[in-house]
Amino acid sequence: MLLDNRQYISQLKTMIEQSDVPWDELDGKSVLISGAAGMLGSGAVDALVYCNEYMGMHIDIYALGRTVSKIEKRYGSICGREYFHVVEADVVQPFEFDFPVDYIIHAASNANPYMFANYPVDTLLGNVTGTDHFLEYARTHGTKRFLYVSSGEMYGQPDASDERLKDGFYESYCGSVDYSDPRSCYPSGKRAAETLCQSYISQYDMEAVIVRPCHCYGPTQTESDTRAVSQFIRMGIAGEDIVLKSDGSLERTHCYVVDAVQAMYLVLLKAPNGEAYNIADNRSDASIRVLAETISEVSKKQVIFDIPDSVDKKGFSKVTRAVLNGKKLVDIGWKPIWDLKAGIQSTIEIMRTEEAGLNKGAK
To answer: Checking DSSP bridges between strand 60-65 and strand 276-279, what pairing results, if any?
Structure first.
């Protein structure tokens, strides 16, 4: 179980102690996190578990996912703690819970290219309808604040004539999206969900804030994650060459998951109402090729090139440069710790340890 991993626990400790997040404001409060078995949702849950287990806090954690078994597998014995509540729900369907919560972090979303290519309807509705269900629940149950986990993909295609984009997408920018392409289900869904947040703020005077993560990675990645960074990391852990299915020229911003979790709680607890923030560690701006080479260096393997199949191509983003500007988040106190090489090194070490433990337990 990841929450038994000493290196990962040490990183949560470092992040919490060095951040400007007012963690004490969560003591005695309740937090519902959707997507609790996903990359960012599970990292957000882990931080609260650490606060309870190692800092003496009492935070009621409601970990929501579509499948109870996945949450139980992810958290193991933690599921038996008095403060930990497993909630099974499909966010696309209406739900009614019999408990109020102080804070909601909505991180549930199809977020990998395979799902975009094969389930565009589910992807779109998961963002739009799911977000509406949570906002309405928050509005009618006295929730203090709602955090929506959007995506840097909502910016669409950059305008080459906009000189301000030389430092990456800034929060007030909104580029074009090809609405005739089913792949647009993801950025379009994120845009619509963000508009819903702003609409609830305007019409109902709600407290809601937004984060737009860049390409996050780390040991919380799921087995079903088909993004390039996650596939490269799996290859590195398995001792395989890193297979690159493009020329690798697309430049992206990356962020280690523990740093991203710090950002989420900083925005939840400190950002002005209605504001949106990029989660982007600009020390980790890198092309896909550089990312592959970094992983190959850490895993001591080679990068090889292959031709993508038709399913791969359907899930590819058409954006030519996906660099996000993280200055606005830094200005409110974000302090990312792990740069790209350190984050990749940690991810591979932690996941190899976890895999070895599972294999040992199976014998």
So the answer is: unpaired
